[in-house]
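quick one before i forget lol
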Amino acid sequence: MLLFPFAKINLGLNVVERRQDGYHNIETVFYPIPITDALEVHTMSEAFPLNVSCSLKVTGVKELCDERKNLVVKAYDLLAKDFTLPRVYAHLHKDIPSQAGMGGGSSDAAFMLRILNEQFSLGLSPKKLQEYAACLGADCAFFTTASLNNPQPVYATGIGDILQPFNEPWHILDGKWIALVKPNVAVSTAEAYAGITPRNPSKCCKDIIMQPVPTWRDELTNDFEQSIFQKLPLLSQVKETLYDNGAIYAAMSGSGSTVFGIFDEEPQLPEISDTFTAKFKL
């Protein structure tokens, strides 16, 4: 079976408190975007001489990685504790940049759960899939039910694992353009949270995104920007460049190093060497 795990952006992100377990509670709005990886899974013959239950091949990335630590394998191992699964081959081709704030690894893990559930008729409900996904990462649960066919925002609290869909269809971004710019710099999650002072926002992001997009510039914030922009001023420059090129809203996504801009018309992307860029119309 072949599926295409997709990315997300955060429409606002506020870190509201530090938890006793060392994690942080947040408020954010996840929104799916059409930047995808590809994940294909096939049953492995019992006669094939491998001593692993899930054999993973990762392509599309330059750096070598320990595939046994990949979230796709961890997703298989998680379900294998509760279900009798056949051995499988998995091929993951990466196009979503890493450490970019776009949830690529989380999406890969969630889609592995979706594939195993469907391919081997495990009968897991959407709610149960979300519970398994939450064991793998803070924003994995979002990707178990999100769709690119009818993209809708989801309000997330807790560590990003408590999801609240909006009651009515949301079409505020229909017809608009989104530009993504990720320079060749990385931001670790630990580094991002180290510079945060938790606080309750004056206005919740889920309420702000119901307003016209031009109002977002003054009200919709990502709490990670202040400290990360000080360490990586290039990201602040990218944000200003997007505004200079006509963006009606621009922000960093999540805790990563991607900056996105929302435009009324097709934008011109800034020319920055060694940078991932993409644009698409919603």
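fyi Residues 154 and 167 are 10 Å apart (CA to CA).
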